[in-house]
Amino acid sequence: MNVLENVDLDEIQTLRSDIQGLFHEFFKVGRQAIEKPEKKEQLQNLLEKTRAELLKIVDDEEKNSDGQ
Fold first, then answer.
1. pTM greater than the 0.85 cutoff
2. Rounded to whole angstroms, what are the CA distances from 67 to 21, 55, 63?
3. CA-based diameter of the chain, in Å?
4. Does residue 5 sit in helix, strand or coil?
């Protein structure tokens, strides 16, 4: 089975670029958070929310694929 058979490579590249851009923003805020405790708390809250949202997407996808 070819893993890339049904994958739009341009779409994957766009998603990869978006994720890299977001990573750079997280990294920039992380540097600020080292110096400012209030930024650290805000960043930690955002990371927890982001992780929860990502897990929700995975859970939704797993539920959809189980129901097919």
1. no
2. 34, 18, 6
3. 50
4. coil
Token pair of 43 as six digits? 């960043």
- How far is 54 from 50, CA to CA, in rounded Å? 6
The CA distance from 25 to 35, in Å, is 16
- Tokens representing 10 are 């341009």
Q: Residue 29 in contact with residue 43, Cβ under 8 Å?
A: yes
What pLDDT does 6 receive? 79
- The per-residue pLDDT for range 38-68, each reduced to its tens digit, is 889 999 999 999 999 999 998 887 777 776 5
Q: Which two tokens stand for residue 30?
A: 């992380």
Residue 22's Cα: distance from chain center in Å? 8
∠ CA 56-27-34 to the nearest 5 degrees?
110
**Which pair of tokens denotes residue 13?**
């590249």
